[in-house]
Amino acid sequence: MKMDNEKERMLRLLRKMLLIRRFEEKSAELYTATKIRGFLHLYIGEEAVAVGVMEVLTPEDAIVATYREHGQALARGMSPNAIMAEMYGKQEGCSRGRGGSMHLFDAATRFYGGNAIVGGGLPLSLGLAMADKMQGKSRVTCCFFGDGAVAEGVFHESMNLASLWKLPVLFVCENNLYAMGTAICYTQAVPELASKGAGYGVQSSSVDGMDVLAVGEAARIATDHVRQGNGPYFLECRTYRFRPHSMFDTELYRTREEVQEWKKRDPIDLLSKRLKDDGLFSDQEMASMERDVAGEVEAAVVFAEAGTWEPVEDLTRFVYSEKRVP
Amino acid sequence: MSEQSAIRATTYREAVREAIREALLKDERVFLMGEDVGHYGGCYAVSKGLLAEFGPERIRDTPLSESAFVGAGIGAAMGGMRPIVEIMTVNFSLLALDQILNNAATILHMSGGQFNVPLVIRMATGAGRQLAAQHAHSLEGWFAHIPGLRIVTPATLEDARGMLWTALQEPDPVIIFENNTLYNLEGTLPENAGPIDIDSAKVRRSGSDLTIITYSASLFKSLEAAETLAREGIEAEVIDLRSLRPLDDATYLASIAKTHRALIVDEGWRSGGISAEISARIMEKAFYDLDLPVMRLCSAEVPIPYARHMEEAALPQVASIIAAAKRMVTHG
């Protein structure tokens, strides 16, 4: 019985990672076909972080993410259709086509955006957590950001304030070793990012961000700490981006060998191999899961293609609210 | 306002404090946060006594982290609270400009209308107290450039008392600029003074010879100038803009249709400032009403200097308003 639950859970994690992977591969293709424009930042390689963390959050919790947030949005359970339509710029998109890839929002799942200012989402997460705390709600706000954000002043301001006011924030640092194209050794005097928490009295830990089960376990410990009213927690997930920073990146700053080396630790392969080694998963089942995911991605493309353009007359909507909020 | 209501003497500072107090009493979602608002009582003593009355949950002293606490205000507003965030002075708001522009003013739009930000930011602005070039600028016109924000500039006690509650009812971010030379302004308010609109400009003095368009502390310089001008037979109409975004075009255009002369008095810098915007709107909408070109009196284009005589020279003053008005009427 326990084995079945565990298997189900692992298959669920695997499927989510696979969905993100295939969804983004399709997105890259659609970018090349000029269906998707603007900036497109792929999460490929980092899927275990979003999927592992999101698993321990409840629907009541809030998420603040970065401009590389397709993974978080999908892992949170946002509709792939609405995300794809958003990237097409269609009004059926999750932000009505006003945001694009970098600004996915969804009130229904408390997804407070893709924020494209590095570190810009950190203070928002403090405020959301404050609001919950002041309203007596036992919720966690989970804020994702990269290693680049740790160099921003606002990271340090936010860690201090969150700790000072014991705010229920889970800080998840996705350390993929590069701030855009600059390696962490050129940007951090102390590259052990989990050590930053100590100066602010924020409980911190580091985890292998390529291992979804390890991320899940670390995130569970972290959210328990936050939910028990102990204040914020800083979780560093050591991960790697397999694709370029965006679609315009020629990757002059890292070697092919380095990328290949990290690909040996592909989070999807790691989990599927583990499942197969334990005899819990067959090649046929994997093929079936692939087909199922491909169908979901294809449906998202069909939905986005069929989407409609917001009338230009609506251009100045959503600058101010259309009705007063009680 | 009820006729029976007693009138009492008060100050601008007390009027703002009363407004905050009223909001805290009326709506449990309201709280105040900022640097030195609690134990110190507010840099300009606006929030003195509120910590004792409402406690540290609702009167929150923050670290010197403008970006974090302004951003936290945005998040709290999205999370169902009604924060009043105090920024000590306008120059410090630049440390939070990323949060104000990239988040507060933008999230409603970026989210396709899903998340609004009912946040009120208050900050001190303006020169005149020898605070030099990092404490005394007038950047409200600059903020008024930003779609998604509402910018209000209460000059009178009535507005200082009444605009806050109305701002808190707005679903979108409102920035209230309080000119720091006004905090000691004395006057009277009825005991039952309450909310007042934040949309409209007001004619503070009627006149037929020229229209002086101004706001905030320059209102009082303009009114004083108008009294002197009146003794010399020139009747100036003085318009208090009150809101810089949106601008109430109708009020000043109606006045210009009557006076045919427009003088804008603005403590912001001239180049690309709110005075330039108003001037352009007058040209677009009332060109043929004008007897002569719009004139502007703005701050000199220098960082605000410390020395008193230099600071005075940098700002529009009663004498310069009188001189400009006379030139316009004589040559118009």
In words, what does this structure look like?
Chain A has 326 residues and is α/β, with parallel strands linked by helices. Chain A has one domain: Thiamin diphosphate (ThDP)-binding fold, Pyr/PP domains (Rossmann fold), CATH 3.40.50.970. Chain A has 10 helices and 8 strands. In chain A, the strands form 2 sheets. In chain A, strands 2-1-3-4-8-7 form a 6-stranded parallel beta sheet, with helices on both faces. Chain A has a two-stranded antiparallel sheet with strand order 5-6. In chain A, helix 4 crosses helix 10 (283-306). Chain A is globular and about 50 Å long. Chain B is of the alpha/beta class. Chain B has 2 domains: 7-190, Thiamin diphosphate (ThDP)-binding fold, Pyr/PP domains (Rossmann fold), CATH 3.40.50.970; 202-331, Rossmann fold, CATH 3.40.50. In chain B, 36% of the residues lie in helices and 21% in strands. In chain B, strand 6 (150-152), helix 7 (157-169) and strand 7 form a beta-alpha-beta unit. Chain B starts with 6 loop residues before the first strand and ends with a helix. The A-B interface holds A 62, 64, 93-99, 103, 105-107, 112-113, 115, 117, 120, 122-132, 134-135, 141, 153-154, 157-158, 160-161, 164, 317-325 and B 31, 57, 62-63, 65, 67-81, 83, 98-99, 102-103, 107-116, 118, 147-148, 169-172.
Short description:
Chain A is of the alpha/beta class. Chain A has helices at residues 2-32, 47-54, 70-76, 80-88, 122-134, 153-164, 212-227, 256-263, 267-277, 283-306, and strands spanning 62-66, 111-115, 141-146, 169-175, 178-179, 182-183, 203-208, 233-238.
Number of helices of chain B: 12
Oligomerization? heterodimer
The CATH top-level class label of chain A = Alpha Beta
* N-to-C series of helices and strands of chain A: HHEHHEHEHEEEEHEHHH
Q: What is the overall number of helices of chain A?
A: 10
Distance between the termini of chain B: 41 Å
- Indicate the proportion of strand residues of chain B: 15-25%
End-to-end separation of chain A in angstroms reads 49 Å
Helicity level of chain A: 40-55%
The unreliable regions of chain A are none
Q: What is the CATH architecture assignment of chain A?
A: 3-Layer(aba) Sandwich
Count of individual beta strands of chain B: 14
Query: Can you write the helix and strand succession of chain B as a string?
Result: EHEHEHEHHEHEHEEEEHEEHEHEHH
Instruction: Estimate the mean pLDDT confidence of chain A.
Output: 96
Order of neighbouring strands in the sheet with most strands of chain B: 3-2-4-5-7-6-12
CATH superfamily membership of chain A: Thiamin diphosphate (ThDP)-binding fold, Pyr/PP domains
Biggest β-sheet description of chain A: 6 strands, parallel
